[in-house]
Amino acid sequence: MQTQLKEEKQKLFELIKEKAFFREKITLSSGKESDYYIDARLITLTSQGAALCAAIMLDMVKDISYDAIGGPTLGADPIVGAIGVLCHQNNQPVNTFIIRKTPKAHGKGQQIEGPLIQAGAAVVLIDDVATTGKAFLQAIDVLAKGHVKIKKALCIVDREEGAKEALQKKGVELVSIFSAEEFLRKQE
After folding, report:
1. 136-182 pLDDT per residue, tens
2. What is the CATH architecture of 2-187?
3. Which end of the chain, N or C, is more open, meaning fewer C-beta atoms within 10 Å of its C-beta?
4. d(CA 141, CA 147)
């Protein structure tokens, strides 16, 4: 099983490197300028990329107990869907959720979409790329209002620009499949 996981991780790395890693000046959602960009949605919105991310992330949390897995829209959306399907196919049902940037302006005015997460529940947060951790921090604050405990946060790529430290201050460990440095090294 570990050999298969290693192969899946290598496939995901190659997909990101070939199709989603760009060397160009860009302004990130954090407002910071960067000379490279990782557009993970170019991978997570493909069937192969979504499946690889889901399998790897589920393996990363196989030894912890949690009630639901989800994260901030839009980065988490395709991964959450793939995780739900993979869990169903493996007869290991799990509830998933998406956190909106702001509460819905109509209907029930929800900010957390998906099956109800009870107070005291434990969840895993996921996102595609972490830079400063802003999206994760907003999600943590939303979940804290409902007295939900975050067991761990996962992302595909950590740009290593403060997200890990910012989440640590909130008592949440951030674990990534890759660091941006891995892609930068391979580009030189």
Report:
1. 999 999 999 999 999 999 999 999 999 999 999 999 999 999 999 99
2. 3-Layer(aba) Sandwich (3.40)
3. C
4. 10
